[in-house]
Amino acid sequence: MSDEKKKRGTEELPLLQKVVSLCKRRGFVFQSSEIYGGLKSAYDYGPLGAELKRNVMQEWWRSMVHEREDVVGLDASIIMSPKVWEASGHVSGFSDPLVDCKLCKARFRADKAPQVPKGSEVTYRREGKTLKAVADRGYVCPECGGVELSEERAFNLMFKTNLGPIESPDSTVYLRPETAQAMFVNFLNVQQTYRLKVPFGIAQQGKSFRNEITVEHFIFRSCEFEQMEMEFFCEPEESDKWLEYWKNERFEWYVRLGAKRENLRLRAHEKDELAHYARGCYDVEYLYPWGWDELEGIANRTDYDLRKHQEASGKKLTYFDPNRPNPETGKPGVHFLPYVIEPAAGATRATLMFLLDAYHEEPPSEARAEGRVVLRLHPRLAPIKVAVLPLVKKDEWLQGKSREIVKEFWKSSVNAFYDEKDAIGRRYARQDEAGTPFCITIDGETRENDTVTIRTRDDMRQERIKVEEAVDVVLRKMRE
Ligand code: GAP
Fold it and tell me: Cα–Cα distance between 3 and 221 in angstroms, integer?
């Protein structure tokens, strides 16, 4: 990790391990193909994880598509024509610099290796001996610290496969490494069928694939992951303004969903960090247990992509604005290639961020004799919104009433969960670890006066409410 990255306090360093262990214990995330020893960097989302990831993606879609007049959705094919990736520059340029260590045989990315000043003397250990050498590369092997390294080779990150039965260069296709390109190649399809006027955006979510050399930090970087991207087409002169707008909008989205503001920051890219086509870029960064690192990028991609696809396909991709004056004639009406602002987020990475941010360990208190682990997820993100619990198990009336209440929640599309196993304290503890914001308990009093208790996850307070109010109370609290 580079020095400038600020670590979270040492007491929080094992946080990642704690979250990984909670994820396995409670069924958020499992290692893929575990019974066969697992597959490097592949993960499966269990019952709670599938709900959490789905909620993260649903909230993004709600704020980016449903609650806006200027953005529409797209769900494109993962396998596209290989010409798309030639035109976008991915076939020739989407690569990482790969290096082999001649001493310990480690294979690593040059840009991720520990950096040292070029020409400086470094010491490293080999077969029990301490050796000295001059680092003429500016980095050393991340495994053994040595400097006897192979040349850097460009390693393309796209997964290749074949379309059809014959494996030949003509049938090569790629799994998309980003969702973005489908928005560019469908720009006019969407604009014309929906009669959209610039500025407008096209949003898409879904799987992307990169043959990453270094996979790290659990689901932070994996070879198969999910993205949430939006391409916002605007007039070139307005692109700086829209970049400002979208970087703020995207930052606040995480905060609105409960992420702690102090764990988030916006970082402008330095000129030498910018992709060659980008005019400006911000990263939303999160303070992960290993330091500040990327959560989402918001870039001004100029008209680079539309221009490249226009050139390569020979199809005009310009937008006609009947009101904008033509610079040559001075009369209204001009064809031009819009600029694009792209907020590009990772859904699986955001899921990890929300888990890390929500994880709390609470010591024993007056309210609880035992300490507890609680996931303080925003109610909208919580996998289960409400657990409905009959106080005692062997009471058919309580069970029947509880199941009736569960069904009432389902009718309002609230994910309610029925649980009768174990003592009530253990059931609360399970729901705290699952991040369930509310527990409703049905007891003897319910039979007498049709009331239940509702317990709030974060302060563990309980109040009695009427059964018929239960759905409204939970829905209201979810909106707060
Ligand atoms: N269309 C632009 C683009 O794809 P990117 O910065 O390469 O930009 C956008 O990816 C986001 O996708 C990242 O900020 C990150 O959240 C997520 N992402 C990228 N590679 C990933 C990987 N290997 N594993 C998990 N998430 C990844």
Answer: 21
- Does 13 score more than 60 pLDDT? no
Instruction: Pick the closest to residue 159 from 109, 90, 77, 214 (CA basis).
Output: 90
- For ligand 1, residues with CB inside 6 Å are 178, 180, 210, 212, 221-222, 225, 227, 229, 294-297, 342, 344-346, 348-349
CA–CA gap between residue 222 and residue 437 (Å, rounded): 30
Is the alpha carbon torsion for 222, 223, 224, 229 positive or negative? positive
Ligand 1 atom index nearest CA of 212: 23
Q: Does residue 199 have a cis bond before it (omega within 30 degrees)?
A: yes
Protein residue whose Cα sits closest to atom 8 of ligand 1: 344
Nearest-CA residue for ligand 1 atom 12 is: 346
**Per-residue b or e along 202-240, where b marks 16 or more CB atoms closer than 10 Å to that residue's CB:** bbbbbebbbbbbebebbbbbbbbbbbbbbbbbbbeeebe
> Do 292 and 265 form a contact (C-beta atoms < 8 A)?
yes
Per DSSP, the three-state class of 439 is strand
- The model's pLDDT over 214-232, given as tens digits with 9 standing for 90+, comes to 888 999 999 999 999 999 9
* Pairing mode of beta strands 372-375, 339-346: unpaired
Taking the model in full, what pTM does it have? 0.91
